[in-house]
Amino acid sequence: MTKKTIVALGEVLWDVLPSCVVLGGAPFNFVYRVNCLGDNGLMVSRLGRDDLGRRACDKMVSLGLDATLLQWDEKAPTGAVQVSFDADNNPDYVIISDVAYDRIALTDALREAAARADCLCFGTLVQRCETSRATVAKTLEKASRALKFLDINLRRDCYDPGSVAFSLQEADALKLNEDEAHAVGEMLGIRHGTLAEFCRAIIERWNLRFCLVTLGAEGAFGLSADGDQAYAAGYRVELADSCGSGDAFSAGFVHKILRQASLAEAVAFGNVLGAIVATQTGATVPIGSDDVDAFGEQRIERVVHREFEKWSAGR
Questions:
Q1: At a CB cut-off of 8 Å and minimum separation 6, what does 294 contact?
Q2: Under DSSP, is residue 223 helix (H, G, I), strand (E, B) or coil?
Q3: pLDDT at 241 (0 to 100)
Q4: Domains of the chain by range and CATH?
């Protein structure tokens, strides 16, 4: 299998969970997972010269990730977020401000990595402050041959309509969850009755190749610019925590789509990875091809989103 170079630009931070502290951040979770799938995942972020920063770097290296594009900040601390869960195990986040990943700089090494990337993944959280926002914009300019994958990742008080509109303008593929789809639709005045209508409208308005909506336990939906659509029903699994499930979906989708897989194949594979991660505590438990095969061989009850009941039954 030919390795693809996949660059993720954004936050590396510590998730402070009720039971433990784990290294996280959507771009980090994503790049770890694509690396596990056999691609060359490169993480671009900035850490503080503190204990949490050293531990984060050591953890990344121990997970087999290339740390050469990590930057160090002498003043700002390493990022952290307080994570809590509601009765349905849905996470809520309190994200610490003015941290090292808000100050990512455009370096020669970053320019070179962007120029040779097959995919560049970015989001809105890293654009909340001026320095990193400017670096994202310049890196996107350098990544002329890459699939620009936007995991919009709306976090309270960490985005605005300007950063959302800019990101959509630059993206080739958009991934978001159901709540984010409704929030973006309202923010940008995209009237839609269904998720499929939202995807169609946003693809047309922003000239995207793909729009992908993850639906938690009810699977995932994708639409392409040529009108192809795919829905993969969810799996009724025993939920440990949902941290990293959406990032695993993104990694699986990108891994397949860069190899010219169909939309349906890419959505289905991402959906399986997301379901497996949901059964694990933390986002960086290894998943091998044997684990994916074993999961597929099980007779697990499927969960269908209400919007896709008739559509799914006709397939």
A1: none
A2: strand
A3: 66
A4: 5-313 (3.40.1190.20)
